[in-house]
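**User:** My hope is that you can spare some time for a protein that puzzles me. As I understand it, each token names a local backbone shape. I would be glad if you read both lines and explained how they fit together. The protein I mean follows directly.
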Amino acid sequence: MRVLIADDHHVVRRGLLFFLKTQKDIEVVGEAANGVEAVEMAGELQPDIVLMDLVMPEMDGIQATRKIKESYPDIIVLMLTSFSDRDHILPAIEAGAAGYQLKDIEPDELVESLRSLMRGENTLHPKASSELAKAPEDPPPHVLHPLTPREAEVLAELTKGKSNREVASALFVTEKTVKTHISNIFIKLEVQDRTQAALYAVKHGLTEYAN
């Protein structure tokens, strides 16, 4: 996979570059020091994934993510930041980030997150998953939604960042069944990935379906 690193701290970029270069299936194609550079380089280099910092000068990671996804929807954005609160997580996902990881993540886990994204899976840091799973201070009223009860259960499990296998185990169904439910969820909710589906669950109070 071809990765673009976007972070305003030189030391962080160097550390990420040093480790990612040791992975046989990863090629770091560029480094951006701010959001403006990240958008420009994403267009020029067409990476598979942009590893995006949240707080950067000139243009922050959320704005940069939104611009990248508007112009290059096939490019995957993984947010890598120090902020684990809902006020940062939700805007990042709404902007189009397919994953949200914190900078205290172990290097091997970060690499696995990149690989998960390439497989079409969502990837959320456990702290981010816990934050999303919390009931909001003013929980939204339950609204009519197009999902079946089983689909709602699958969606609730996705908010925990679980893999298809883990969801299947939690609900005592096969992985093939989980994949079918996830496909139906995407179509019914008109979302593009698991992370956006999880955001829908949070906004509509559906996380309580999780076991």
Notes: The longest helix spans residues 175-189.
